[in-house]
Amino acid sequence: MKYIDEFRDQALAAGLARAIAHEAGTGRDYAFMEFCGGHTHTLSRYGIADLLPPTLRMIHGPGCPVCVLPIGRVDMAIRLALSRPEVILCTYGDCLRVPASDGLSLLKAKAHGADVRMVYSTADALALARREPGREVVFFAIGFETTTPPTALVLREAARQGLANFSVICNHVLTPAAIAAILEPPGGNAPQAVQIDGFVGPAHVSTVIGSRPYEAFASTHRKPVVIAGFEPLDVMQAILMLLRQVNTGRAVVENEFTRAVTRDGNLKAQALVAEVFEPRPGFEWRGLGTLPDSALRIRVAFTAWDAEAKFDLGYTPVPDNKACECGAILRGVKSPIDCKLFGTVCTPETPMGSCMVSSEGACAAHYTYGRFRDLPLRASDTATPANQDTA
Amino acid sequence: MSAVKPGYARPLDLRTGRVGLAFGAGGRAMAQLIAELFARAFANDYLGRGDDGAVLPAPGPGERLVMSTDAHVVSPLFFPGGDIGSLSVHGTVNDLAVMGARPLYLAASFILEEGFPLADLARIVESMAAAARTAGVLVVTGDTKVVEQGKGDGVFITTTGVGALPAGRDPGGARARPGDVVLVSGRLGEHGMAIMAQRESLAFESEIVSDSAALNGLVEALYAAVPADAIRVLRDPTRGGLASTLNEIAAQSGVGMELDEAAIPVSPPVRAACELLGLDPLCVANEGQLVALCAPEHADALLAAMRAHPLGAEASRIGTATSDPQHFVQIRTGVGGWRMVDWLSGEQLPRIC
Ligand code: SF4
For A83, what's the count of Cα atoms within 13 Å in the CB-facing half-sphere? Predict the structure, then answer.
């Protein structure tokens, strides 16, 4: 664990905190968005808010794959699993609890008789299909660029083996499209936009796509991006690097996570993904609306393993629960405690919105690790200050 | 063996035989199972009488009886460091021990699935018997039911235990006070990760072995070291891990807690496995660990007593109880920030990204 301990050292953290405070001591406010749910988790899990100056605000971004999954896509999987007894629907753990229509989730659909199972990897899903030749194994695939290559791999493997009882519902989404949507809200409605001085860029995603995709974006929008690992000191170091860029008027892509990320990323993985997937013309994101070229679909050559084609699944968009502020939170406009349902109706046990499901979701992270920070506010029932830090 | 002619012809085939529905039907087959497996493994005078219950001597003067029960449905049935048999003894023995009691007797009830291999059942029962011997408890009565194939998960075991609580001992979840010191007896998360690694066939570099063990000896050592009244709360942090246990105590006692993450013992393999799966070791189950809250002036003596016992060699002082009207359990993280340690919500699920 030596490797990890180095990135959790208290003395180093204290030193970084001092450097950050010094760099941020210019009399102005700073707001940075951590795009990734993994970084949201790190900030909360290590109580990093305590080590940042009050003038610096971290804003949660839309980078939690479970959070951005719209209700309609979960409904699609639930309908399939409930209507076809031959189907075994399998997916990653957190997907099971995402609230869908009719008070259902995949987990609740399971209690209603659907055969829904949790898998740890795409390979497990493929193995299940081999073990159960008489059933239809459908893998509900979600995630950003990190989880896409493993899905591509099993699709290619299923095709190679001619495994006819395996298919995938592809919900893979693309990071750069989401970051662009934050800065150019759909429809260009400026009031929806939020002040962001820079981005903590994704870690695992960037190991696949590299740092290059953010370059045009940093220069066009004049927003610095620092790609950071998921350890607490990685994130603090990235914040310091962002501050230095802002203070010196630069806006470029820097890489804090050089131990895993290069400029070009993993070319082999990129080629694999390009072989199996192509961009979807449009895909609905929770909170961000329908974004062009922001997600992937399975190429025609692999149609036989595309569950959407195989089972003729249609997509019906479903609006979010009216009181749920997930959309605004995913755009960085609001914080969890701005939501009336937070901590009362909506808790990790009874999530009303997707942000309360995964530990990387802004609401779940704040509820689990940080809600003690709200107490003075909650007790006196005063209004929430605009820049309440929820990390 | 041949000297005694029992009332049936052929002994149970404990090597290749399987559980049949007749084993639970109350007839000869059931009598045979009890005689050849259970009564033999758990042999003692009370059980040997073969009555519907056990007549037990009353505890000593001033002592009170403590009773506890626990159902065990673990999957897989065998795991590194134990099996459902030893676990079913440790579970109930520990529930009694953390009440301050000296565990004395167990009742064991088995729900067997038709078709379950007798060899596996025998292995489980032998392991139970060994665990009971080590813990110094007697299995004095029991029950066996067989359910049709597909209606059980091999073996379910429920154990109910009775223990004697010596005068003066009165640990309870509601007795913690601000200023009390929080101690744990050793490394957290070993049992839960051993089970998870086995269940999901996750191959980790070094095998993680369950910590399943009977804690009554350790508890006796603690009471020998400090005045009984100094020990305010004892708990074994099983399902839900340390996080749920401390939240439970905080709520029962109406206190908050402040912990130091750096002081909480977690072995490198468990840390690495949790890291990989996105789990919090504080939420992972244990079966051989103990949490103690104790009056501050006796904390050092209690910690020394823990460390002097084989099951507490890696004991650590991890925090203190505070006065907090919200009863929050907070922890100073490795990098020096603060966060909450919340109840485990639902099941711990590995993260996606
Ligand atoms: S608290 Fe629940 S309902 Fe409100 S924004 Fe968060 S997830 Fe949505």
Answer: 9
CB-based contacts of B218: which residues, under 8 Å, 6+ apart? B97, B185, B290, B306, B309, B311, B312
User: How far apart (Å, rounded) are the C-alpha atoms in residues A178 and A170?
Assistant: 17
Beta strand extents in A162-234 (DSSP E only): 166-172, 198-201, 225-227
Residue numbers in B near A360 (CB within 8 A): 351, 353
Task: Give the whole-angstrom CA distance, residue B217 versus residue B232.
Answer: 18
Are A195 and A31 contacting, i.e. CB atoms less than 8 angstroms apart?
yes
The secondary structure element, H or E, covering residue A75 is helix A71-83
| pLDDT, averaged across chain B | 92
How far apart are alpha carbons B163 and A319 in whole angstroms?
58
Residue-by-residue DSSP string for B210-243:
------HHHHHHHHHHS-GGGEEEEE---TTHHH
DSSP codes, B292-341: EEE-GGGHHHHHHHHHHSGGGTT-EEEEEEE--TT--EEEE-TTS-EEE-
| Mutation for testing the B interface, residue in A3, A46, A146, A350 having most B CBs under 10 Å | A46
Instruction: Using a CB–CB cutoff of 8 Å, tell me whether A2 touches chain B.
Output: no
Q: How far is CA A361 from CA A230, A349, B341, B351, in A?
A: 15, 14, 17, 11
Hey, where are the domains in chain A?
29-319, 325-368
For B236, what's the count of Cα atoms within 13 Å in the CB-facing half-sphere?
A: 27
CB contact under 8 A, A232 and B350: no
SS3 A281: coil
Angle value at C-alpha A364, between A360 and A367, nearest 5 degrees: 135
Is A302 within 8 Å of chain B by CB?
no
Which residue in A3, A9, A41, A1 sits closest to A233, CA to CA? A9
Q: Do A36 and B353 touch (CB under 8 A)?
A: yes
Mean pLDDT of chain A: 89
CATH 3.40.50.11740 fits A29-319, yes or no: yes
Domain range annotation of chain B: 18-165, 180-340
Per residue in A243-279, pLDDT (tens digit) is 999 999 999 999 999 888 999 999 999 999 999 999 9
* Helix or strand (DSSP H, E) at A290: strand A289-292
CB contact under 8 A, A94 and B326: no
> Hey, what CATH class is B18-165 in?
alpha beta
ipTM: 0.78
Tokens (6 digits) for B146: 């067989």
Question: Span B180-340: which CATH code?
Answer: 3.90.650.10
